[in-house]
Amino acid sequence: MRLKHYGGISNILAENAIRPFAVGRKSWLLADTPAGADASAVHYGLIETAKLHGLEPYQYLNSIFKALPYAETVGDIEALLPWNFKAKEISH
Length: 92
Description:
Blueprint: H1 12-28, H2 34-52, H3 57-67, H4 74-78
Helix pairs in contact: 2-3
């Protein structure tokens, strides 16, 4: 993306990064329970962290939800976190 230079520091990239959160915030106000709001926040955080690490969110979640039932150790679960995730190593 080419940005025009207006002679000052631009925060457009930061604004674009937080825009989905600002839009989602309106929806989260309608969560039925605190547990529902917590679940939404956890999923949102997981999705945004996956994006940050270059993962496509749907494929990432699909892979980890298939692999999670087979995780037997803390190490197995930690391998599914976005910063450790390597799809080729997951065989399930």
